[in-house]
Amino acid sequence: MDKMTPAMRQYYEAKEKHKDALIFFRMGDFYESFGDDARIIAKELDITLTRRGRDREGVDMPLAGIPYHAVDSYLPRLIRKGYKVAICEQLEDPKNAKGIVKRGVVRVITPGTVIDSSLIAGEANNYLMSISGNELEFGLSFLDVSTGEFLTTQFTDNQDYDRIISEAARMRPAECILPSSLFENKKLHDRLKDLGATLNIFDTDAFDPKTAYQDLIAHFGVMTLEGMGCEKLPLAISSSGAALEYARTTQMRDLAHIQSIRTYFENEFMVLDSITLRNLEIIQGLRNNLRDSLRDRSHGSSLLEVIDHTKTPMGGRLLHKMLLKPLISVILLTERLDAVDEIVKKTLLRYDLRSHLSQIRDIERLIGRVVYGNSNARDLIALSLSLAALPRIIKATGENDIKSGLLLDIIQRLGDFTDIVALLERAIVDDPPVSLRDGGIIKEGYNEKLDELKKLSSHGKGWIAEMQQHERERTGIKSLKIGYNSVFGYYIEVTKPNLSQVPQDYIRKQTTANGERFYTPALKEKEVMILSADERGKALELELFNEINSSIASRSKELQTTAQAIGELDVIANLAEVAVNNRYTRPEVNDNCNILIRDGRHPVVERSVPPGFVPNDIRMDCQEHQFLLITGPNMAGKSTYMRQTALIIILAQMGSFVPASYASVGVVDRIFTRVGAFDDLASGQSTFMIEMVELANILNNATPRSLILLDEIGRGTSTYDGYSIARAVVEFIHNKDNAGVRSLFATHYHQLTATEGVLRRVKNYHIAVKEEGGDLVFLRKIVPGATDRSYGIHVAKLAGVPPKVIQRAKEILKEVENGSAISKGKEAKYTQLMLFDPGDANTNAKESPVIEELKNLNLDEMTPLDALNTLSALKRKTAGG
């Protein structure tokens, strides 16, 4: 270390304090990195790796650098790959430094704490997630440093951490911090890693509930956290305190724009777990990259992409959250639907609102940068234009006799910022430069002293131009010119052929390849005057800008309230626009158990069906139509029908109009789905195992207020095992908690349709098809009753399976239908079991001891795992084992 240069000693001191970060070390006009950092940066940024000097061991030092003015184009590439970057800046002007320039880390940039607009992908929230807990009790917090939004909750989870994963899947954090005890939990670590977040260990002491509590009340300036809802939630407090401390540690300043925490609970919203979000394609289509920007609507393959036509970033973020957290309060839903309904009916108001809202920029993030202290003049212009739209919005609503209580409340929260708009219009030039240090940001007339300095500098530069013309005439050197650079100041440049004509009063200053540079006492005097005025002017402009910025920062709480109100208004106007354009209707939402939808449509699929989407009805209740058993061929539309039902309910409970001619929805507390096939072979889980794990979660957690969508349960194993599991599942759901659960169950096991006569709340439906000359026509219409055919061979034909295979399949099917054995081996012994219906009183149960044992099973008290174990034992018996 003693052999190091002073600058390298500074570098290693910074690296010692920030071992897990890449160091960007400011050296003149470059940010330089050394050693292993340089190797990583060169590889990730695809820049040249060079060498300079030697490291502490005397080995050649790897070096990689980027221009400091281009840092905004390089940093995002590192941050999005999960790296931390510590910015080690020059802390004094090199011109005034005595010896080595002082340097120090001014902030650490991490994926979850970025605040610069260039580092944030799109307009979606950029959350830092913090997790604290012990055994199965956990606290979760989500902090968006760029907007100041801060959320927390506390709950009991299961051993697979499904609740944590569901929350993480909804919120999509860019980074997650955990104490070492949780970070080292392999199952939790791996499941979080699969979601794409960067995981980091943070100081365990920061998670201490007492420390966290004191930190939070000090930051918010309160005596208690009672008003924020988390006073008696120690793990929520623990995770919140750690999140705030981590953000403060990385940003290295007090984050005054983070002004409150909102505590939320599961019973406030419909629960949509990670599996349901995936299967229903609520936020992104299954074929889309999960990390795509939420504002990329090019594919139109998700529900969010269909309904998000918001005009402001605040509205876009709020709509995203509302879609992931549908309400279960009928009162709140009615208020929201009333507001949307009013804007639907007032066409001119809707047009005016959306037109004015389109002028508003990201006020939440602009305020974050203002309070943080890294805003520039363009940010203030954007804020001014945004706030200038508020009076027009208030005027438009005032002229339309608003009735909705929610809309009236929103308008009252918009605030009056005419003084800020007037200040910014008077102070900041209309098209300011990006950098604050280059001057040219303050308007003429705002500050008298600044005007004088600008005038002095401007006149001085005019004098320079006059001097150049005068010297050309005096010396006869037509090519003579007066130039300037930051090292040598002003100079008179004469080319070599004209050096003989140089006057005696010229003083040599520098020799160049093409000639000589000179100065005169008069030129030197003007240089001092011009540069002094220019530098003092730039310094004064920066001082004035900071004063303006501080005055706006003092109104941050009011501005954040206004930003939230704008987001709410934008969402309501957006939902009204979507309702009109997509022919959606207002749903009725109530607390009973009934679901009735007339002419329901799939909001995503209907946009891509050329001839027109075929609408369908659905009727569900908790008496006779609680469990709908749906049969029909593949490709006929069973899955679409099930999904559209769930999506219509989600839209209704987020307060949106829905794609139907009529809809009445009894509030659903949770939607469970099991559709499609996904392997996870890397962790040793096959398609069938994943199916059973997801099924177990559904059966264990569904309530009478839930909605279950099950598609082809049991198809991942043998026909006989699969049918048996499917039958047991139907009975379990029907009888769960002596009340059953509203369910849609699509299946190819036609034997299950016999349950309609045995289980009173089961009703059969099927997708209608028509055969024309041996061809199959899908009518896409769901009708009452069961189908006795799968039409699998027809579908295979449509898919292009060779004719020989199709013909042979038809021959085999005919043999099976005529009662021929499928095989002579062990499978033949299962034929009778497959066809047996426990609800059929005429069946001769004495023909098989296995059947007798099945009849004596108490299915109501069996868990899914018990059912699987029992089936395995029965299989061994029938196989002679």
UniProtKB/TrEMBL annotation:
The DNA mismatch repair proteins mutS family domain sits at 706-722
Q: Does the keyword Transcription apply?
A: no
Cross-referenced InterPro entries: DNA_mismatch_repair_MutS (IPR005748), DNA_mismatch_repair_MutS-lik_N (IPR007695), DNA_mismatch_repair_MutS/MSH (IPR017261), DNA_mismatch_repair_MutS_C (IPR000432), DNA_mismatch_repair_MutS_clamp (IPR007861), DNA_mismatch_repair_MutS_core (IPR007696), DNA_mismatch_repair_MutS_N (IPR016151), DNA_mismatch_repair_MutS_sf (IPR036187)
Pfam family name, one:
MutS_I
Which GO molecular function annotations are given, in alphabetical order? ATP binding; ATP-dependent DNA damage sensor activity; damaged DNA binding; mismatched DNA binding
* Keywords tagged on the record: ATP-binding, DNA damage, DNA repair, DNA-binding, Nucleotide-binding
Q: Name one GO biological process term.
A: mismatch repair
Origin superkingdom: Archaea
Q: Which CDD domains match?
A: ABC_MutS1
Binding residue positions for ATP = 632-639
Keyword DNA repair attributed: yes
Family, similarity comment = Belongs to the DNA mismatch repair MutS family.
What role does it play? This protein is involved in the repair of mismatches in DNA. It is possible that it carries out the mismatch recognition step. This protein has a weak ATPase activity.
Q: What is this protein called?
A: DNA mismatch repair protein MutS
Chain's gene name: mutS
